[in-house]
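<instruction>
Derive structure tokens from the sequence
<entry> Chain with its tokenised backbone below:
===
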Amino acid sequence: MENALEIRGLCKRYERFALEDVSFTLPRGCVMGLIGENGAGKTTTIKAVLNLIRRDAGEIRVLGQDNIADERAVKERMGVVLEDGCFLNTMNARQVDTLMRKAYRNWDSEQFFGFLSRLGIDRDKKIKDYSKGMRMKINIAAAMSHGAELLIMDEPTSGLDPIVRDEVLDLFYDFMQDEGHAILLSSHITSDLDKIADYITFIHAGRVALSEPRDELLDTYGVLRCTADQLSALDPSVVRGKRMGAFGCEALVRRDGVPQGWPVEPVNIEQVMLFLTRGEEAR
């Protein structure tokens, strides 16, 4: 079975920012969390996948097809949710159904309205009168109602309260019951990714800093709190990021490179991101 998404050598240059050689692979049956600070290149990468911007170099294959040469077929097989939504605020859910029925050959009105009933969304109310959570839910319901095999989500849980975020994650869990499905989920809310992501791809300043299975990442790295002398005694290749303080230092380290008995604490996705962006670069 082909991968859900393959990006190889993606480059896009602007006057003050550039994506440089972005490469990663999302297998089917998996959820990938796409993380990075604001302006790192996450949304630019997603726009390149959707062919909303013209890339300068690289190759993108979606569900085994070229995202430009086979664009129409690819987009039939993708569901997309962007942070700002996809529908006019003056529309209601019935009008969304009419629009999507014309846009997608495999649009399933029964499934769409089933999602709306499950999520408690009034199908006659205008989108502008929904809460932010309701607006996001209708966008996700639409993305999942035309037989999509790959969902691409740009900050779908941003600004939502914990209860609504859990409802959204439940939808993703249901979608992933089919092992042929996959999700690329860009999010600043790393606690959501701790719950659902199988892979983590971290983009920093336009480059991929890491792209690894989540469990492998969390098993490989830990946080070491020690003295400056202890840190300097480690092989530099063991240290991925560090913070120096008046009373000691802490570092993101490879567990297998730290002497036995040294206190290495478990790490989470947020800590990995912070060490790699805000920690001093290890030398």
User: Anything to note?
Assistant: The longest helix spans residues 162-175. Residues 204 and 277 are 7 Å apart (CA to CA). The longest strand covers residues 5-13.
